[in-house]
Design goal:
Beta-galactosidase, Chain A, domain 5; 11-stranded antiparallel sheet; 12 helices
C-alpha cells in the first residue's frame, strides 16, 4: 500500500461540529460529532487529531483501526461493513476503497442545498476549517473496479446529512446487498430510545440499555410502517426532553430501511443505517450507479433540541407549506362509502358556518367503489353515485370560499377493477401467484411506464376538470413480494416508491399550488424523503385524543407541527370507544394542522358553537403554533404532561397541561415552563376556549395570572392545576 494522503477537515454550523480525518487506511472517519466548540485553526486540528489518536493494545490489527463513515471490513473492523456485494462469480466482495480526492461546496447564502452550479473547492491534503456546506470524498478501488462518492453535508441548522453513491467501473455486473453509513458515538452514550407501534397506535417509545452487540431495526414493508423506527436516538441514561446530550438518526428510505447502533468490544460504537435491499434488487451493470438514501443525523441537549434541528431543516425546504394551514374538514367519519349529495352539501354548509377552509371528499367517489373490495385503480368519477359528476359538490364548496380536496390511492389496485382485469401484468408479483391480499388490494407496478402513465393520465384529467387544490394520497397495505412482471419478477420495492414520488412531483409541477397529504392507513409512511414531495402527514387513523396526545408528542421528534394532520372527531372515538369532552378533543388537535373529522350535521348547536370558537382561536394563533419552537416536558411523577410552542423571538408562548392518568401523588409538584428568554418578564394566564375542563381545581394564581422572568418560570415554576384524567388546560404567556 502506497503512502495515503491525509486530510483533516472541521465544519461547524448551527451549534454542531463535525471533525473528519482521512488517515492511513484511506477511509474518512469522524473524530468528533457533537456540540460546536468555537473557533479553531488548522494547527489546532492537527493537535486535536493527534490527541485523540489511539495507542496499540495487545492483539489488534497493525493498521490503526477507526470506524469509517463507510466502514471497511478489510481494515479489521469487526462490525457491520459499509459495503456488501460481489461481482459475477463472487469477486470484489471485500473492496479496499481509499480516498483519492476531497472537495467542499459552501452552503449558498439563502441556506439551501448546494446546486450543480455551486463552486466546488478541491481540497489538497492538509487541514481545513469550514462552515456549513457539503464535503465530498471520492473513494476508489481499481482492483475491485468500484468507486464511491461519499457526501457529508452540515446544514445551517446543525443536522448532518450523509449519502453515498456507488459506481460500477468494471466490465461485469456488481450485485449490491447493502450500503450502510455510520457516525461514531461516545462510549458514555449507553441508552437507546426508538419507536414501534401498530395500526391506530403509531410512534410508541421504547428504551433499552446499550450492550456489546447490535441494536438493529429493519423494515421490510415497502413503507416505513406503523412500527417505524422513525428516529433512533441515544444518550446517557435518563436523557429526556430538556436534559442530556442526545444523538439521533433518521434513515430517509421511504420503502425498506435499516437502522442500527453497534457497540464493539474494541471500544467503538456507531450509529448507522441504509436502505434495506431485497436479493437481486440492485444489480449494477457496467457504468451504472446506485445512490443510497439520505441519512439525517441530529444532536442536542435533550430531545427537544435534537428535534428542533430536524424541524428547522424541514421548514427550510422549498416545498414546506408554511404556517398558513387551512382548517380542513374530511368527510370520511361522517359518510364513509355512503356518498349522497344532499348529505355532503349539508356538511359543506355546516363546515362553512364554522369557518372551515378546506373540504376533502374521501374514499368512495370513483368507479365501482361501493366498499373496499372494488374500484381501486379506476380513477374516474362513478356516474351511478355522481350522475352530474363532482360539479354540484365542488361548486358548493368553492362557492363558500373553501378549497376542495380529493382522496386517491394511486399505488394500489383491487383485482375487482377494470384496470386489473385488462392488465393483470401491471400488478406487482414475485411469483405467478399474486401476493397475499391486504384489505382486498394489490400493488400497481409503477415501475412499469404503462401503469405509471395510466395513473398519471387519470389523475391529471381530474385535476384539470375540477379545481382540486389538495390530494389525500393513501397507501393502505404493506408492499411485499414486490416483483415486477415486466422485469423477470425482480424485486423493485425501492424503485416502486421512487416512481410514486416522481408521480407526486409531476402532478405538483403541472398543477401549481397543489398540496399532497401522505397517508398510509394513518401514520404508516412518515419519513424525510416523502416530506420533500408532500405538505402533510396523516398521523394516525385513531382520533381518540388520549391516544393522539402520545402520538403527536412523539411524531414531533421528527416532524414539525404544521405538517401533522390533527383533527377533532366525534365525542365517542371510532377506534377505541372512549368518550371525551369537546374541550379536550379540540385542545389536543390544536397543536398540529387543525381539522375536523365529524358528522357536523349530527352535532348539537352547543357543540357547533364551541367548535367554532376553537377554530377561530386556531386561526388567531396559527402563526405562532405552526412556526414556533416545540417544547415538551413532564410534571412531577409524569402524571401531567406539558406541551408548548414558543415564538422564535421568545416574545410569546402557548402551553398545554394534560393529565393522561391519575397519578399516585395528589399534587404533581411544580410546572416549569421551558424555552423562554431567561431575563425577560412574562405574564402567565390560563385561557379557556369554550368550556373549562371537567374537574379542574385551579391554583390561586389562575385568578389573576402571575408575572415572572423566563428563568424563574423555567427553574422555580408554578403550581399546576389539578385535572381529572383525560383533561387538559391551555396557558398563554406574553412578554410584559
Amino acid at each position: 500500500m502506497g503512502e495515503q494522503p491525509r486530510w483533516v477537515v472541521l465544519v461547524q454550523a448551527g451549534g454542531t461540529a463535525l471533525l473528519l480525518e482521512v488517515g492511513q487506511a484511506g477511509l474518512p472517519h469522524v473524530v468528533h460529532w457533537g456540540p460546536h466548540w468555537g473557533a479553531a485553526s488548522p494547527a489546532d486540528l492537527a493537535e486535536l487529531v493527534a490527541g485523540t489518536a489511539r495507542m496499540d493494545v495487545d492483539n489488534v490489527p497493525d493498521l490503526p483501526l477507526n470506524p469509517g463513515v463507510l466502514p471497511g471490513g478489510w481494515t479489521g473492523w469487526s462490525g457491520r461493513p459499509g459495503l456488501l456485494g460481489h461481482r459475477d462469480g463472487g469477486a470484489a466482495w471485500s473492496p479496499r476503497l481509499r480516498t483519492t480526492a476531497v472537495s467542499f461546496v459552501a452552503t449558498p447564502a439563502d441556506g439551501g442545498a448546494p446546486t450543480g452550479e455551486s463552486a466546488a473547492e478541491n481540497l489538497a491534503p492538509g487541514e481545513y476549517c469550514r462552515g456549513s456546506g457539503t464535503l465530498t470524498f471520492t473513494l476508489t478501488d481499481p482492483v475491485a473496479q468500484l468507486a464511491v462518492q461519499l457526501e457529508l453535508r452540515l446544514t445551517p441548522v446543525g443536522t448532518v446529512q450523509v449519502r453515498a453513491q456507488l459506481h460500477n467501473e468494471g466490465q461485469d455486473n456488481y450485485h449490491l446487498h447493502e450500503l450502510n453509513l455510520a457516525l461514531p458515538l461516545p462510549l458514555e452514550v449507553d441508552e437507546v430510545l426508538d419507536f414501534s407501534g401498530h395500526w391506530a397506535k403509531e410512534r410508541c417509545p421504547q428504551r433499552r440499555a446499550l450492550t456489546i452487540g447490535t441494536h438493529l431495526r429493519e423494515h421490510r414493508r415497502g413503507r416505513p410502517g406503523f412500527d417505524a423506527t422513525t428516529c433512533l436516538l441515544a444518550g446517557r441514561p435518563g436523557f429526556n426532553f430538556r436534559r442530556g446530550q442526545v444523538y439521533g438518526l433518521h434513515v430517509a428510505a421511504p420503502a425498506n430501511s435499516r437502522f442500527y447502533i453497534e457497540r464493539l468490544p474494541e471500544g467503538w460504537q456507531v450509529l448507522g443505517g441504509g436502505e434495506l435491499l431485497h436479493p437481486g434488487e440492485v444489480t449494477l451493470a457496467p457504468g451504472q450507479s446506485y445512490r443510497g438514501p439520505l441519512l439525517h443525523f441530529t444532536q442536542g441537549q435533550g430531545l427537544d433540541e435534537a428535534a428542533g434541528r430536524f424541524h428547522d431543516w424541514i421548514r427550510s425546504l422549498p416545498t414546506a407549506p408554511g404556517p398558513a394551514r387551512p382548517v380542513t374538514l374530511n368527510v370520511w367519519e361522517a359518510v364513509g362509502f355512503d356518498q349522497r349529495l344532499d348529505k355532503l352539501l349539508a356538511l359543506a354548509d355546516a363546515a362553512h358556518a364554522l369557518g372551515v377552509e378546506r373540504f376533502v371528499l374521501d374514499d368512495g367517489w370513483f368507479l365501482g367503489r361501493r366498499d373496499d373490495t372494488a374500484g381501486l385503480g379506476d380513477w374516474q368519477v362513478d356516474p351511478i353515485v355522481w350522475p352530474d359528476g363532482l360539479t354540484p359538490l365542488v361548486e358548493r364548496v368553492v362557492g363558500h370560499g373553501m378549497e376542495f380536496g380529493l382522496w386517491f390511492e394511486p399505488e394500489m389496485v383491487n383485482p375487482n377493477s377494470q384496470v386489473a382485469r385488462e392488465h393483470p401484468d401491471w400488478l406487482l408479483a414475485a411469483h405467478p401467484e399474486l401476493p397475499v391480499a391486504w384489505r382486498h388490494q394489490q400493488v400497481l407496478d409503477l415501475t412499469n411506464p404503462q401503469a405509471w402513465n395510466h395513473v398519471h393520465t387519470q389523475m391529471d384529467a381530474l385535476l384539470r376538470r375540477y379545481p382540486i387544490s389538495y390530494l389525500k394520497w393513501d397507501h393502505n397495505r404493506d408492499t411485499f413480494d414486490a416483483g415486477s412482471q415486466t422485469a423477470d419478477r425482480r424485486a423493485v420495492a425501492g424503485e416502486q416508491v421512487r416512481c410514486a414520488l416522481r408521480l407526486m412531483d409531476r402532478l405538483r409541477r403541472d398543477h401549481p399550488g397543489l398540496e399532497i397529504e401522505s397517508c398510509s392507513s394513518g401514520g404508516g409512511r412518515i419519513d424525510l424523503e416523502t416530506i420533500t414531495h408532500t405538505q402533510r402527514f396523516w398521523v394516525s387513523d385513531c382520533l381518540d385524543p388520549l391516544e393522539r396526545q402520545a402520538m403527536l408528542r412523539w411524531t414531533l421528534q421528527l416532524v414539525p407541527p404544521e405538517f401533522l394532520g390533527s383533527h377533532v372527531a366525534s365525542a365517542r372515538s371510532h377506534t377505541t370507544g372512549r368518550q371525551h369532552d369537546l374541550a379536550f378533543r379540540a385542545l389536543t388537535a390544536l397543536w398540529g394542522h387543525l381539522g375536523v373529522e365529524w358528522d357536523l350535521t349530527a352535532a348539537s348547536a352547543d357543540e357547533l358553537a364551541q367548535l367554532a370558537d376553537w377554530i377561530a382561536y386556531f386561526k388567531e394563533q396559527r402563526e405562532l403554533l405552526l412556526t414556533g419552537r416545540v417544547v415538551r416536558d413532564e410534571v412531577g411523577e409524569g402524571a401531567l404532561w406539558l406541551h408548548g410552542v414558543v415564538a422564535r423571538d421568545a416574545s410569546t408562548a402557548r402551553y398545554m397541561v394534560h393529565s393522561p392518568y391519575t397519578g399516585a401523588l395528589g399534587l404533581q409538584g411544580r410546572l416549569r415552563l421551558p424555552g423562554l428568554q431567561a431575563d425577560t418578564r412574562y405574564r402567565v394566564r390560563p385561557r379557556f376556549v369554550g368550556r373549562a375542563p371537567a374537574g379542574l381545581i385551579p391554583p390561586p394564581w389562575f385568578t389573576t395570572g402571575v408575572t415572572a422572568t423566563g428563568a424563574a418560570l423555567a427553574n422555580v415554576g408554578l403550581t399546576p392545576p389539578s385535572l381529572n384524567p383525560e383533561q387538559a388546560v391551555l396557558l398563554e404567556v406574553e412578554r410584559c
